[in-house]
Design brief:
The protein is of the alpha/beta class. It is built from eight helices and ten strands. Bound molecules: adenosine-5'-diphosphate (2 copies). The site of one adenosine-5'-diphosphate has 11 residues, from α1. Its EC number is 7.6.2.9.
Amino acid sequence: MIRFESVTKRYPDGTVAVDELSLEIPDRSITVLVGPSGCGKTTSLRMINRMIEPSGGRILLDGTDIADQPVHALRRSMGYVIQHAGLFPHRTVADNIATVPRLLGWDRRRARSRALELMERVGLDPALAKRYPYQLSGGQQQRVGVARALAADPPVLLMDEPFSAVDPIVRKGLQEELLRIQEELGKTIVFVTHDIDEAIRLGDLVAVLRTGGRLAQFAPPDRLLSA
Ligand code: ADP
Ligand code: ADP
């Protein structure tokens, strides 16, 4: 479980991006952080893998303060997916997906077969393995991003507006795929979006943030009060 205890983030210029946020993110479920642009969603997400350090409060992972954990071990336990996939442009699809396994010392053959297995899991034709990212559609690039994040089988997936830049039909397909992956693999997923419909469709729990980085609601989608 990931637990935020009165977490605050004040940037050096004085902006309070996250204000006394307390949340319990259960294992093996999808928790969505939703709210308008600038309400602190990305900041909150990036504090979980310590890309950003809180200025107050603490975040516990399975009961241990993440500030006391080595950053590389922490990041290895968390896949990270962003809006424009962030793929390495000069690596093929298969090599992009195999990045972390290769860093972990897997041999080429094992990493490649893992990449092909994951392509299948995220609904990508294995014939795309040798393509480069620019030769893929936006939706396909996001699938590669998800496959890459899953490659070393981390228990946690952090997803920052992963489907926001693709058109609505492709987006729906990606959402369904994510729900299927979640059901099959049982990952703990923290998902950021500004789209309340997406939050309701995907979330087991939905944290509604409002401007100033304060938590307005935290509930299953069917128990959210309309604002
Ligand atoms: P969201 O993901 O909900 O759009 P962010 O977490 O990106 O929100 O930003 C929250 C607030 O913090 C915004 O007011 C944003 O302008 C501000 N902010 C983000 N990054 C920085 C930074 N590096 N320095 C100063 N302010 C920042
Ligand atoms: P989407 O609606 O998912 O964004 P696109 O219209 O961008 O899809 O792409 C449709 C198909 O064309 C995809 O299967 C994609 O792989 C292929 N494609 C797009 N760009 C290229 C390219 N530069 N080279 C080869 N195939 C491409």
